[in-house]
Input
Amino acid sequence: MERRTLLGRLIWQLGEVVATQPETARTKSITLNLPGWSGHRAGQHVDVRLTAEDGYQAQRSYSIASSPEEAPRVTLTVERLDDGEVSPYLTEELRVGDKLELRGPIGGYFVWEAEMGGPLLLVAGGSGIVPLMAMLRHRSAAESTVATRLLYSSRSLEDVIYRDELDRLMKRSTMLEVAQTLTRAHPPGWTGYSRRIDLQMLREVAWPVAQRPLTFICGPTPFVETAAAILVELGHEPARIKTERFGPTGEKHDGE
Amino acid sequence: MSENFFSRGFRGRRKSELSERLPPGQYLERDFPVLSAGPTPQTPLANWDFSIVGEVDQPKRWTWDEFHTLPRETITLDIHCVTKWSKLDTRWEGVSLETLLAQVATAANYVIAFCDGGYTTNLPLEEVTEGKAWVVDTYEGEPLAPEHGGPARLLVPHLYFWKSAKWVRGLRLIDEDEPGFWESLGYNNHGDPWKEERYWGD
Output
């Protein structure tokens, strides 16, 4: 635990949807204007609450994708779960001009700020990229030169979230390296990895143990379990590896 | 917030016969999500022990084998995670904290559970005695899986599940309450799901 943050009471606030952006066939980014937003740290999440006309309510947690520098606008990237109760509404029904109730920011552990330094190792599986993207956007907005490597695993090229933006960020900063792996289908000429993450891949991509990278891993449980165990096996300090997993339901969790 | 706000076009799931078993803001989960802040610790059972330390007459320690000579209980109950999922009728086996704490004399009012990996969580002593908490090593008849806290975790089902510390190695008895890991990072100090005590100030 690197710092203790004194938080005030979290209140529900109403934000207005000012933009929506499909990212892949299953994911959509929703940008809200939140006049009362107190700011956040890259990696934190929010609780979203939906209320039906008859008063029925449902709550879920979603990672913040935008950088703190974009406040009071906050962007969430939501993956649609076919049997979900909340994510189909957010990705298919909600539109610009609608209001959305949320509270946050929540979670003071899985966070990175430029002054925490590095080198930084980010390992993402699927929509686990979302809180890590907040860190990359913060790194860029803060003009940080912290040496950073991202290893991002997706099923196919079409499932890569923020594909163009990641390319742009990488071209702009020589201190940022992005390695991608596609686990199910890869296009002709694909030069990245084409398999699930394994020891050899992490040996190639991760920083040498002696550089003591600060590591953030986010993705589905088996993915996070595998990546974290391999990094520990390679000799990385468990205390410098932070994890966040989403279960079979795909919603985000960082503490029970 | 605003009394009259509703989400245009949101209908939600109609209530089921199980709804009354779900605390406010919770939804029913059939899988068993995994949540933890870092890598899963690996402690060989030969090195595992469970200790009661702190404000006690004499610290107490059980090895894995000694722990298994203690009277065991089977418990079936509902669990509730602060990240909104609840899971009904989960079945566990382990030793009640009542049994463990009976082996020490203390005037303390609080306990801090400590774990492999450095995790901690704080609890009032009166909320972990009288059949309200266990150290469990079996889930649904199988040894508790490492990602769910195996070899042993705390089980305090009447509070949000972050209080049911994974990879638990002992209890430190203390006179004055002090926040644990998530309690220092914005989660509620108490964590009653029925009162929706999720975060500071709730």
